[in-house]
Amino acid sequence: MVEEEVEVDVEINTTADKFFLFARRSQNVVTATRYIQGCDLLEGEWDKVGSIILWKLVFDGEPRVSKDRIETVDMEKNVIQWRVLEGPLKKEYKSFLKTVKVSPKQGGSGSVVKWNMKYERIDEKVAHPKRLLQFFVEVIKEVDRYLLSEE
């Protein structure tokens, strides 16, 4: 199989810097959304490349875990990447890389969160992760609402 990707842009009302600062500290996200139940640092430091994080989340009403390694933290471009190391996704995908990039909205207030997933399916029977993409849209919207309520 070949590497494929899906992505979505989500317009939010929070500024790019505020959203990125919050999101890059993975442990913060737990307080802002019902979909993320926990986040444990297994190795390294919270927002440092090479660190390993165990996410505890609720996807389609089911508890799930994902053990991820932080691949990139780019403070200038507001980009974070996580590579999935273990969890249900590794049963269906040979590789799975999640990227979030937060940019100021052109010609207006707020910002745009681009969520991208690059993956290689184990075979063509495995579905593209469109439901997972929608899951992250909901997480982004909940974090945005949380951050706006904090102002």
TrEMBL record:
CDD domains: Bet_v1-like. Coiled coil: none annotated. One of its GO terms (biological process) is defense response. It comes from Arabidopsis arenosa. This is Bet v I/Major latex protein domain-containing protein. It comes from the Eukaryota. Residues 1-150 form the Bet v I/Major latex protein domain. Transmembrane segments: none annotated. Gene3D superfamilies: 3.30.530.20. SUPFAM superfamilies: Bet v1-like. InterPro entries: Bet_v_I/MLP, MLP-like_ligand-binding, START-like_dom_sf.
